[in-house]
Amino acid sequence: MRLASYNVENLFERPAIMNLPSWDDGRDILNRYAKLAKLLESEAYTASIKEQILDTAEELGIKGKPKSKYVELKEIRQKLFRRPQGKPVEVAAKGRGDWVGWVELVKETVKEAQVANTARVIKDVDADVIGIVEAEHRSGLQSFNEQAIKSAGGKRYEHVMLIDGNDDRGIDVALMTRSAYPIDHMRSHVDDRDGASRIFSRDCPEYCLALANGEKLWILVNHLKSKGYGSAASSNARRKRQAQRVREIHDGLVARGEKLIAVLGDMNDTPDSDPLTPLTRNGSTLKDIFEWPQFDNGGRPGTHGNCTASGKLDYIFLSPALFGAITGAGVFRMGMWGGKNGDLWPRYEMDGPRDIASDHAAIWVDLAVG
After folding, report:
1. What burial class does residue 29 get, using C-beta atoms within 10 Å of its C-beta: 0-12 exposed, 13-18 middle, 19+ buried?
2. Residue 32: which region, alpha, beta or left (left: phi > 0; alpha: psi -120 to 50)?
3. DSSP class of residue 87?
4. Do residues 71 and 60 lie in contact, with contact meaning Cβ atoms separated by under 8 Å?
5. Distance between CA atoms of residues 342 and 60, nearest Å
6. For the purposes of burial, counting CB atoms within 10 Å of the CB of 197, is it exposed (0-12), middle (13-18) or buried (19 or more)?
7. pLDDT tens digits, 71-104
8. Phi-psi region of 338 (alpha: psi -120 to 50; beta: other; left: phi over 0)
9. Domains annotated on the chain, with CATH
10. Residue 161 near residue 186, CB atoms below 8 Å
């Protein structure tokens, strides 16, 4: 069987702020968006909180109007703001229970060429089982599976599963499998906590696949905390907490006697980083497919951006039994641009970098199992 992982960077819609050239371009807006969302959850809006709400809303461009280029205020019942004509805007609500609404990121439609190239990548990788990172929702992923992959000349996946996670930007993790690898059962970890905080930015779903020989293959799909916004220290700390929890889930499966386990997805950090030590060191038995002696990295060590060593963000970690069953493995970059002129590696014909399928490569491994 072929197992793959691919960060598709959304299929049909993507927050406009995430389409800027780099994370740094949108960092301040995302930080303010997160701050305002947290302020709005306050039980009581004190004078200090009201002042912060007004200031942050003004910075986001939604104080005097409900929608800006990147952020929109949804007021479903009652109002957050009072906007008397000719007078300063005021916070009308007294607290979270006084109105129904929220702030959300404005989304843009993904270009047709990008959708088509994403489908081409999945068709050409032709995995039996593929972990998908940054899909909007299950209905969108199912439509992509039924329409875009078919249009690209690929085979649809018989099983498509996505559980909404903790990220309100519509960047969830999912799994698609062929008919020979049905999803026997699954378990979500969206509510896993350490103290008062949820651990996972998205989720770490456990998927149990039934193999033809009666064995079970366990797949944990992940998208760990990004470096995109928040301080480096807080992002690193949360990513390490997430990696530690993934390790605990993995170790729990091992303790129950499970031998065929894969942990895959976008870990948002490099193999030598401290946040990933629970998965890469500290007694971990998991091994990255990049460590397989015959692994084909296409001449570059990374999976994101220009695929330098600092761009090694995507992983398929395997348990010893699975690692020993590898018959082939590599990186697929045809849907990426690569460098100023897009000539760092062979790619699909594109009019420019805006036509890329994703900033991430797909990674795959062939396994003699099942």
Report:
1. buried
2. alpha
3. S
4. yes
5. 34
6. exposed
7. 999 999 999 999 998 999 999 999 999 999 999 9
8. left
9. 2-13+109-367 (3.60.10.10), 23-107 (no CATH)
10. yes
Is 178:370 a contact under the CB 8 Å cutoff? no
Looking at per-residue pLDDT, the higher value among 30 and 49 belongs to 49
Tell me how far apart the alpha carbons of residues 4 and 363 are, in angstroms, rounded to a whole number: 6
Q: Could you tell me which of 116, 167, 172 has the C-alpha nearest to residue 141?
A: 172
- Under 8 Å between Cβ of 263 and 286: yes
Residue 155, phi then psi, degrees to nearest 5: -95, 135
Its pTM stands at 0.85
Reading the block at residue 148, the tokens are 């875009």
CA pair distance 330, 321, nearest whole angstrom: 19
Mean pLDDT calculated for residue range 172-191: 96
Quick one: tokens of 78?
């009652």
Residues 6+ apart with CB under 8 A from 2: 125, 126, 127, 128, 129, 364, 365, 366, 367
Sign of CA dihedral 280, 281, 284, 288: positive
How many whole angstroms from its chain centre is CA 168?
12
Take residue 242 and report the two structure tokens written for it.
């997430």
Sign of CA dihedral 90, 95, 98, 103: positive
pLDDT in tens, 139-177: 999 999 999 999 999 999 999 999 999 887 778 999 999
- Are the CB atoms for 258 and 310 separated by under 8 Å? no
Task: Classify each residue of 250-267 as buried b or exposed e, where b means 16 or more C-beta atoms within 10 Å of its C-beta.
Answer: bbebeeeebebbbbbbbb
Maximum separation of any 2 CA atoms in the chain, in Å: 74
The mean predicted confidence, pLDDT, of the chain is 94
